[in-house]
Design goal:
With about 475 residues, the chain is of the alpha/beta class. It contains 14 helices and 22 strands. The chain is globular, with a radius of gyration of 24 Å.
Length: about 475
């Protein structure tokens, strides 16, 4: 059956379509409908009708439906894993893990929903004013917002879907979701599973198309109450600005250029192994990938030598091959961006140690690349590089390390490697970042815990309970108990 959009529980096909590429082959393998403003309006209106039904379902029943969705995802893991790898180029084992995690997020939403609606009870006689408070009490309740507009990126088409959809459904909101046109099919398949689990038709709608053509129609629709977006900082901050201007709430999970600092007293073996995985996992195409490595001069030569040796051992190949360590990047455009970043760093004095040239094979393959002594004015240290490029900076002091870590407009995650905990802790407190890992990878994320950044890395926090609070509104109710 051709893959279409999902509106009100029905598959919607259109004559005009957009290609979906297989990054491992560099070839089109499927198409999806090219949605327009009319499709967006239909989806939002149906979502609003679904919200009015969804909110009346008792919380314990919504939790059971979420658990059922998790069960169905587990039943389809093999099928969805193959699809996810085909449209993203992610290693097969990593795609499978993402599907396992996706089911886990739905289970977590079912569990956390029981806490999301907690409020308070306040005897008002605690306050002297206004007069008559001895006969009043107040309590708070939380209520869903209505329709959530969700926009997700290509790199986590299943897990990002779950992070937007599961908490929304848990608290009684419906969703209109726009996936990346680079990886849209997984989201549509998951929307079908939501319907199969028993949620009312229209609870989750998926619109495929170009953001430039349908993005505004979705985010500006008068029936949309909240916009949740994961993607670039420039786009996200523009959406947040428009959301606030129109009286809507916003959750923005944006870009990052995570620094990893290696001090001279660090366990260099641990630091190097962690940095390799944290930088080159899925070809570096994560917002919380390590994108800058900052090393104290005293141990820089030793660290760089070992790190480079480990990187040379990485095998770039077909994501379906279990022997591959790195698959392709998502598109031809990324290859061009990498070439420009490498050329700029080297022209300004950086030393190319590993990689640096596109692999001559079908598909969008680029080797893991390492550049040492990268100037702070170069592209890799002034721009988020969403690709397998590791720039290394050498510093003479802890103060210089913190200064470079804080020099960019992002503040998502960071890491500090040191065997001296008080020293590492002091640096962690100085780094402007949503999360700081000590002797661990920036790639870590706990789906039930708060996740997000500072500066231009985000607005609000994701994480099951945090997202549910963002997706509800608190209302205070006062009662006069005088006879």
């Amino acid at each position: 059956m051709p893959q279409g959009m999902v509106i009100n529980g029905q598959v919607v096909l259109k004559k005009e379509t957009l290609p979906v590429m297989n990054p491992a082959e560099g070839l089109e393998f499927d198409t999806v409908p090219r949605g327009d403003e009319h499709d967006v309006s239909r989806a939002v209106e149906n979502a609003y009708s679904a919200y009015e039904r969804l909110y009346t379902i008792p919380l314990h029943m919504r939790a059971k439906l979420l658990t059922k969705a998790a069960e169905l995802i587990r039943m389809r893991t093999e099928e969805l894993t193959a699809l996810l790898t085909r449209e993203t180029g992610k290693l097969l084992r990593d795609s499978k893990y993402e599907l396992i995690r996706t089911a886990f997020i739905f289970d977590q939403a079912a569990i956390e929903s029981r806490r999301a609606f907690e409020g308070f009870f306040q005897p008002l006689d605690a306050f002297e004013l206004p007069a008559g408070n001895e006969n009043r009490v107040a309590f708070s309740v939380r209520e869903p917002l209505g329709v959530v507009a969700a926009i997700i990126p290509f790199n986590f088409p299943a897990a990002a879907f779950a992070h937007k959809v599961a908490p929304a459904l848990a608290v009684g909101n419906s969703v209109v979701l726009k996936p990346s046109i680079l990886a849209p099919i997984t989201a549509a398949k998951l929307a079908g599973i939501i319907s199969e689990a028993g949620f009312p038709p229209g609870s989750v709608n998926v619109i495929t198309g170009k953001s430039s053509e349908i993005g505004s129609a979705l985010t500006d629709h008068e029936l949309v109450s909240l916009i949740t977006f994961t993607g670039s900082s420039n786009v996200g901050l523009e959406l947040a600005s428009r959301a606030i201007k129109n009286g809507k709430k916003a959750i923005m999970e944006l870009g990052g250029s995570d620094p990893l600092i290696v001090l001279e007293d660090a366990n260099l073996e641990l630091a190097a192994k962690t940095a390799v995985k944290a930088r080159f996992d899925y070809s570096g195409q994560f917002c919380n990938s390590v994108k800058r490595i900052i090393v104290r001069e005293e141990i820089a030569n030793k660290f760089v030598s070992h790190f480079s040796e480990l990187v040379r051992g990485l095998r770039v190949g077909d994501p379906n091959d279990p022997e591959s360590d790195i698959g392709p990047v998502i598109s031809e455009d990324v290859i061009g961006e990498l070439d420009r970043a490498v050329a700029d760093a080297v022209s300004k004095g950086g030393k190319l140690l590993v990689g640096g040239n596109r692999l001559k094979k079908p598909g969008f393959y680029y080797p893991a690349t390492v550049i040492d002594e990268v100037p702070t004015s170069s592209i890799p240290l002034t721009t988020e590089i969403f690709a397998p490029l590791a720039p290394i900076v050498r510093v003479k002091s802890d103060e210089d390390a913190v200064s470079i870590a804080n020099s960019m407009e992002y503040g998502l995650n960071a890491a500090v490697f040191s065997t001296n905990f008080p020293r590492a802790y002091k640096l962690a407190r100085k780094i402007k970042s949503g999360t700081v890992m000590i002797n661990d990878s920036t790639r870590l994320r706990w789906d039930a815990l708060p996740y997000g950044g500072v500066k231009k890395s985000g607005i609000g926090r994701e994480g099951m309970r945090d997202t549910m609070l963002e997706m509800t509104e608190e209302k205070m109710i006062e009662v006069n108990i005088a006879g």
